[in-house]
Amino acid sequence: MSSGSTHDTATADGRGEDDDGLGEDDVSLTIGGSQPLTPELIVAVEALCTRVEDASGDPVVVLRLGAPPAGAAPERAAVPVAIHLVNRWERALRRLERVNAVTLAVAEGRCGGPALEAMLSCDYRIGGPDLRLAPSSGTGEPWPGMAVHRLANQLGVAKVRQLVLFGTELPAVRALEVGLVDELSDDLPAALTARLALARGLTGTEIAIRRRLLLEATSTSFEDALGTHLAACDRTLRRLQESSTS
Known about the structure:
Elements lengths: L1 E2 L8 E2 L13 E6 L6 H16 L5 E7 L12 E2 L2 H15 L4 E7 L1 E3 H7 L4 E4 L4 E3 L11 H10 L1 H10 L3 E2 H7 L4 E2 L3 H12 L4 H14 L4 H24 L1
Helix pairs in contact: 1-2, 4-5, 8-9
């Protein structure tokens, strides 16, 4: 993993003029496909999580990943980072992975480094036809961070072996086939708008509970997981009962 100067592609924002279908409480973050790991990027992810946690309603998180926005300054050459910065980044991603909100990723062009790692933390991923997932870091070698853990847990060892061991880039169609992206679209704004409409009917806290059950499923025995699942079911039944009587 490497560090370098960052630019406007690493800022957490609320609704903007070119935010397709985003509501007032929704939060978006743009990370360039070659964006290096920097303190500014970590602060942006942490700020995004704080905005979600402080929201009164059920915001949706949108990450725009890969190709930098028009007019963005070119990213400078990367330099090595200290391990404490990597630790902060992994903790920020874990926080993102646990927010009480639906998290959507829209990725296009080359998507590697922090952009790829952020995508792996999202609930639903939309890719453009030119998407290329690239696990290599600034050193030219695959980065052995927690993305390896997420890839293996989400897809299984066999499907990610070449990606993790050799840094083989994954084109859009293959990424869809193995399940790293959920949808490919030639019209990313339209695809995002449609997915945002579906996300509006979901409750952030309930999404977070179901997401946690998924994340723990591969490492928890049936017996240990039973109590947690029963508690989640009981919570859902109580909520439905309250809705029917109100």
